[in-house]
# Entry
Amino acid sequence: MKDASLFKLVIDQISLFTVPLIFFVIVGYAMARRAKVYESFVAGGKEGFNIFIQILPYLVAIFVAIGMFRVSGALDYLSELLAPLTLKIGMPSEVLPVALMRPLSGSGSLGLAAEIIQDRPDSFEAKVASTIFGSTDTTFYVIALYFGSVGIRKIRHAMVAGLIADATGVLAAVWLCRAAFAH
# Structure
């Protein structure tokens, strides 16, 4: 037990200093090469702001669509419709909304997963929800934001590949949680 607490203390200290250390190493290296660090930082910030302005309409559109999907009850209806399938693959039905929301919204799916975790911490459902959250991506959000901001209109193949990857992540999460945590 003492070794475990010592290990945790060492890891906590390393993680505390990792980001500042990386920052100072990069800035120090740039200064040693006589790069204009501050000017480059300001130019990067200006470019980042311009990119934000470009993608803002796509962000607004996707957030409105996600809000409509949740508030309309479509998420609940879809969850009820797919409940028999979740039972066949061994997924708790309470976790299905997390899997359905994840391709649309990271924060929406995080809220749903956090609700499950708060209600039943350390439960099988909480473990599956957490694993699904970590093993899938916000496919529609990524496509709408990044493809839209650079003007890509033909998204069919990327969307299909992303959704297949999400489905694979969900199935793998359920399978791994069943193998690791099911009694």
